[in-house]
Amino acid sequence: MQPQSSTKNKIIFADYLSEDCGKTSIPRKKEVARGPMGDLVSKEQRRKNMKAIRSQSKLENRVSRALWKRGVRFRKNDKSLFGKPDISIKKYKVVIFIDSCFWHACERHGNMPKTNQEYWSEKLERNKNRDIEVNEYYKNNHWHIKRVWEHEIKENLEKVVNNLVDFIEYAKKGDF
Ligand SMILES: [Zn+2]
After folding, report:
1. Are 76 and 159 in contact (CB under 8 A)?
2. Which segments of the chain are extended strands (E)?
3. What is this structure's pTM?
4. Domain 56-173 in this protein, CATH class
C-alpha cells in the first residue's frame, strides 16, 4: 500500500508543477503590469491606454488652439479646480470638459475591452459616476459647465468652437 500512495503523490506534485510553470508564473509576469491605479492591466491594454491618452491631448489641443485663435483666453487643466477641467475661465465661472468616447463611455462609440471585462466595466462605471459628481458640483456652485464629446470634435470642430464661443459669451453676461 505504501509505494502506491507515494507514486500517486508524485504524479499530483508533477501535475501541479507543470500547471504552475505553464500557466501562472513566468508568462504572466511578462504580460501583466500594474496600471496607474495599481490595477492589473495587460501590456496590450497599457499600449492602448497610452494611445488613448495621446489622442485625448491631441483633441484638447485642437479645441484650445481654435479657441485661442478666436481670442478666448483660458487656463488648461487647472489643478485648483474640481475635476481638473480641460479648459477653464475662473473669472466667468466657466469650465469645459472634453470627453473621450472611450473613457467616458459614449453611448455611440464607447466599447468594452475584450480582456479584463470586470475590471473595465467597474472602471468605466467609476468614470461615469465621477462625471455626474463633477457636473453636480459645478451646477450647485453656479458655474457654467459644458462637456464636449470626442466625436463632436472629430465630426465638426468649427461647430464645436462656435458653440463654445457662444457659451463663454453667455457666461460673461451672466449675473454670477
Ligand atoms: Zn462618441
Report:
1. no
2. 32-34, 40-42, 75-76, 87-89, 94-99, 144-149
3. 0.73
4. alpha beta
**160 CA distance to ligand 1 middle (Å):** 14
pLDDT band at 39 (very low <50, low <70, confident <90, very high): low
Model confidence at 24: pLDDT above 50:
no
Sheet holding 87-89, edge to edge: 75-76, 87-89, 94-99, 144-149
Q: How far apart are CA 129 and CA 132, in angstroms?
A: 5
Ligand 1 centroid to residue 152 C-alpha, Å? 7
Look-up: residue for cell 503523490?
A: 9
Cα 124 to ligand 1 centroid, rounded to whole Å: 14
HSE value, Cβ hemisphere, 13 Å, CA-based, for 74 = 30
Dist. CA 102 → ligand 1 center (Å): 8
Distance 157 CA to ligand 1 centre (A): 14
